[in-house]
Amino acid sequence: MDFELTDEQQLIRDAVREFAESEIVPVAAEIDRDHRFPAELLPKLAEMNLMGMTFPEKEGGAGADYVSYVIAVEEVSRACASTGIIMSSHNSLATWPVYKFGTRAQKDRYMHDMASGRRLGAFALTEPAAGTDAAAGTTTAVRTGDGYVLNGSKMFISNAPHAEVYIVFAKTDPDRGTRGISAFIVEGDTPGFAVGEAEHKMGIRGSSTPPLYFTDMRIPKEALLGEEGEGFKIAMATLDGGRIGVSAQALGIAQAALEAGVDYAKERVQFGKPIANLQAIQWMIADSALQVDAARLLVYRAAACVAAGRPYSTEGAMAKLFASETATRVADRAIQIHGGYGYTEAYPVERHYRDAKITELYEGTSEVQRMVIARSALR
Length: 379
Ligand code: COS
Description:
The protein is of the alpha+beta class and 379 residues long. The protein folds into 3 domains: 7-119, Acyl-CoA dehydrogenase/oxidase, N-terminal domain (Butyryl-Coa Dehydrogenase, subunit A, domain 1); 122-229, Butyryl-CoA Dehydrogenase, subunit A, domain 2 (Beta Barrel), CATH 2.40.110.10; 233-377, Up-down Bundle (Butyryl-CoA Dehydrogenase, subunit A, domain 3), CATH 1.20.140.10. Helices cover 51% and strands 13% of the residues. It is built from 10 helices and 10 strands. The strands form 3 sheets. A 4-stranded mixed β-sheet has the order 1-4-5-8. A 4-stranded antiparallel β-sheet has the order 2-3-7-6, with no helix packed on it. The two termini are 27 Å apart. Bound molecules: coenzyme a persulfide. Coenzyme a persulfide binds at residues 125-126, 132, 134-135, 178-179, 232-233, 236-237, 239-240, 313, 362-364, 368, 371-372. Residues 125-126, 132, 134-135, 178-179, 232-233, 236-237, 239-240, 313, 362-364, 368, 371-372 line the site of coenzyme a persulfide.
């Protein structure tokens, strides 16, 4: 068993960290405060080859291995969790299903533009009354002579309205439960497609997550992704990878919070000495360092499974569950170490705390991860 990164993975970490420190850190607090989607970062992420990292070069991707991808998500998220999820959802949730389930014609139409970062993607599964129960959606796709007509709405759609390509799930056969759902590739400029008001969120405020509305939206039959009725499996398989992306995002947030706590503990003087000398603070830092390390092992293990072509659904669920709960705990402790200052916008830890919480909720709540893990353990 080898715990060392390869030279290439280390180079990618160094390059992405340097990029994130110089380009992303300076805007992170501002985009959070102003709830602003950092559109100006997209061409820079693309230039760094971060928008299609694991796809082959012939499809417009960077041809990097999956561990390098999670390292990149971790490093971007260490700087700014909003930018981390913009990148991760584009790679894992939008581009991956086109690569994995798309026909040659669909790949020719979308892969180069998406994997190179020229066209941003989004994943539209969740609906107002269908969150954890993802099969309960009521959006319909009715077959017509030459395609489908979509009606319904979606909610919490990361990257909308900036995305141009949407993976949309809709019922083609409402009586067949999970087997009556189909996936479609929908372009954002299709008549009948509308984007609602952006949500005002507790954290990851730079990531826009508005609702989508489809009103008699006609799409061609070539928009169907995979077979009719395969949509739920496509969604689940896509989320298996998405969850590893979120675990890496959580790891980056946790790492940033750990470092912030350590830095503050060394410089803050109380009772005549830095508070890092106090055992109460040392124990908090020890627990956080331990949990961040354990999370990293689980996240990289899940990524290594993907890279090796092994099953990764359970490993991804474990990584996401542990890394997300770690991010929340470590950010909480980092605020505690900062005392009252940690509760103000003068320090980044209150942002890390707010950003961390979403990682326990989206791409499957912690309860869903436990369901996936338990099903595997009880098999
Ligand atoms: N990969 C491929 N297929 C999968 C799968 C996976 N990871 N997980 C389940 N499936 C398949 C099952 O094999 C089953 O296939 P058959 O019809 O051939 O038997 C089908 O999908 C239905 O699976 P299941 O019975 O497990 O569906 P449930 O309705 O019980 O759903 C949970 C289970 C709760 C795990 C699922 O709905 C889920 O993950 N919900 C959370 C959704 C989510 O993450 N939303 C966030 C959206 S992005 S912010």
